[in-house]
Amino acid sequence: MTLLTMFAIAVALAMDAFAVSLTAGVRLRCVTSRHTFRLAGTFGGFQFLMPVAGWLLGIGAQQYIEDYDHWLAFALVAFVGGRMLKEAWDNRGKKDEECEYSDPTCGSSLWLLGVATSLDALAVGLSMALLKVDVWLPAVIIGLVCFCITACGLHLGTFICRIPGLTGLGNKANALGGLVLIAIGCKILQEHGVLG
User: For 103-113, how does the pLDDT look when each residue is reduced to its tens digit (9 = 90+)?
Assistant: First the structure.
């Protein structure tokens, strides 16, 4: 496997994490280095660990995992998306400064999103086991690329909030973020042939 191939796989695997981090940046409006390292570190860490776990599981366990991994990813992402929609509903009619949102870079949401956005990396690790490809260098590249893309998405989200005319996005962005997460979950199901 060439470095270019590894990098392309890493970027493709990081797209769900990018969408989630962009939404988190819009939601937070002001991102600190702690937010960045928590979110990017968790997403990058899971993107590193999942291919390794898939590779270690190897050929024997693939048939058991591939039957339900997409359902697990959908459930996790839809759960967090549903919580965001509930928060948006609870904060309707309030100004952005009055709205209360949970921090997506800490607590159970962070771990759920980390797992959900990296389950496809588990399948990549299983594929590497089938192809008898060593997983360590690809896993490091996948984790580092995801870390960088997640950090960029988080800061891009905060930049979007500063664009004149978009400063009052807060609660609408929270609702949109919830819908985006649920759409990502549906995309995962569609990619696995569940939605046709």
Answer: 778 888 888 88
